[in-house]
Amino acid sequence: MHLHGGEFACLLSGEVEFLLRDKEGKRSICLDTPGSFVVVPQNTWHKAIVSQPATMIFMTPGEGTENREVPPE
Prior knowledge:
By secondary structure, the protein is an all-beta fold. It has a domain at 1-32. It contains no helices and four strands. It has strands spanning 7-22, 25-31, 37-40, 45-59. Strands 1, 2, 3 and 4 form a four-stranded antiparallel sheet that branches. β1 (7-22) and β2 (25-31) form a beta hairpin. It is globular and about 30 Å long.
């Protein structure tokens, strides 16, 4: 979770599913086409599941990032 802004992730190759969890619930976003992207909102727990080798570009406000092995329920 990033406390100081959202995270931008763009798929260059492969396939990645992003699982997001925030106050409003859970959602899944599948990136399976080069150029597809997700903007993970600030203060949103998220996890990337890589189903095949993938290459991505991330832009993340790193200061204050919180990590957990598994996002809380």
